[in-house]
Amino acid sequence: MTKTALANPDEPRRPGKSKLRDGVMKRGKTWSYVIRVTDPETGVSKPKWVGGFPDEASAKEARDEARVKARRGEYIDRNAITVGDYLDEWLDSHAVEIKPKTLADYRHLIDRHVRPNIGGLRLQAVRPGQITKLYRDLVTVGGRKGAGLSPRTVAYVHAVLRKAFGDAVVVDQILPSNPVERAKRPRLGHPEPGEIWTPAMLRSFLKVAGSHRLSAFFHLAAYTGARRGELLNLRWRDVDLEGASIQIKGSASFIAGERIEGTTKSGRSRVVSLDAGTVDALKAHRKRQLADKLKAGAAWTGTDKDGDGYVFATGWGGPVHPDTVSSLMTSLIKLHNEPKEGASPAEALPHARLHDLRHIHATTLLLAGVPVHVVAARLGHADPSITLRVYAHVINQQLVEAAEIFAKQVDDVA
Question: Is residue 317 classed as helix, strand or coil in its secondary structure?
């Protein structure tokens, strides 16, 4: 039996009818290439197949790069790496360049929603259809007790996978293209804030919160639109009561039981002006905190090396856990809604999250006609376009009213 000569030394002989041409062939709907790689330990040359390329040109380009690396002894066979293993490596490499809270969120999304579904697949075997199915499953039964995940969560999963697989293409060069980019994900849109409290509702809430030692926290959250972590990171040196402003320099969060302080979400600090009532609320809070410090004596732990401390602290001066203020808001709403003996029933407050105080601030300003770029600066949005997107429903309401406002101005002049 005569052996058929190979057209190229890199090409192994394949049984049966072969369409291999110069180390490249089409298998199914995608293209693959093959090169010979010498094992440095045994000296044995073996063929290595790499597939999943969308066209012949892409396969040839990758083949040429692989041949050069193989001749230099730099070729790494990554064919067997799974999605789960690659994501572990990807997270480890990103630990030095992203915020700890962001990294923790990435890990949670991957461990909770990606690894159980596609973590065992070979990275180079993942197809857009499998990513599409992942999104579909997450939307329908991906949550707790078989409930579907929120569109916002699925959007986060997509963002993480798109970046990870994108790095596999551009940085690690072990994928010819990004299957996540070609996957079909559900129409997620941009969720709008739910029911927003009216100014009267906010006043009622702040009144019932006034008796608590952390009442100024809720006042400042509503009157500045600052995020929870930003306020819990605030020091007294960042508060200018004479100049009626605060400087928001960073944010605080808890990850795996450890308090982590970092930059703001946009990565930049900002100065937010205060009204006279908010300045008074902070002065009263400062007075109350000094009384707590005097009472605690040597047990007070809230003074840092610069002799300064947290604006919002525990009774011993330590930092407040973010969950404390979130759960406290729920308790205060329930307290407001409880019937009081001998008093006329008050209008019940609908449920609201702590973050909704930020929405109240933004919505109230926009409806009052404050320019979008000014609202964006107070909220700490990196770009006014973010404010426009999040509060599109408020902007649209203003657009409807704009025609009547214009007509009224012209008619009054006439």
Answer: coil
Burial class (CB in 10 A: 0-12, 13-18, 19+), 101: middle
d(CA 32, CA 76): 17
Burial class (CB in 10 A: 0-12, 13-18, 19+), 45: middle
**For residue range 287-308, what is the model confidence (pLDDT) as tens digits?**
999 999 999 998 888 776 555 8
The domain ranges of the chain are 1-77, 83-170, 199-351
The H or E element spanning position 53 is: strand 45-53
- Supply the pLDDT for residue 174: 81
Task: Report DSSP state, residue 8.
Answer: S
- What is the length of the chain? 414
Q: Average pLDDT, stretch 199-219? A: 94
Tell me how far apart the alpha carbons of residues 261 and 151 are, in angstroms, rounded to a whole number: 29
Could you tell me which CATH number the domain at 199-351 has?
A: 1.10.443.10
- Distance of alpha carbon 336 from alpha carbon 328, whole angstroms: 12
Residue 164 reports pLDDT greater than 80: yes
- Average confidence score pLDDT of the chain: 84
Closest CA to 87 of 116, 66, 65: 116
Contacts 24+ apart (CB under 8 A), 159-163: 160/106, 160/109, 160/110, 160/114, 161/114, 161/131
SS3 186: coil
pLDDT for 78 equals 58
Quote the CA–CA distance of 362 and 244 in Å, as a whole number.
20
Q: Tell me the sheet residues that pair with 45.
A: 38
Residue for token digits 């409880």? 338
Instruction: Give the max Cα distance, the chain.
Output: 106
How many CA atoms does the CB half-sphere of 298 hold within 13 Å?
Answer: 0
φ and ψ at residue 310, rounded to 5 degrees: -70, 140
In sequence order, what are the residues at sequence separation of 6 or more whose Cβ sits closer than 8 angstroms to the Cβ of residue 159?
A: none
Contact 163, 112 (CB under 8 A): no
CB atoms within 10 A of CB 24: 20
Q: 87-107 pLDDT, tens per residue?
A: 999 998 887 777 888 888 899
- State the pLDDT confidence band at 332, using cuts at 50, 70 and 90: very high
Would the pTM of this model clear 0.85, i.e. be above it? no
Identity of the amino acid at 58: S
Q: In what order do the strands lie in the sheet with 30-38?
A: 24-27, 30-38, 45-53
Is the CATH number 1.10.150 carried by domain 83-170?
A: yes
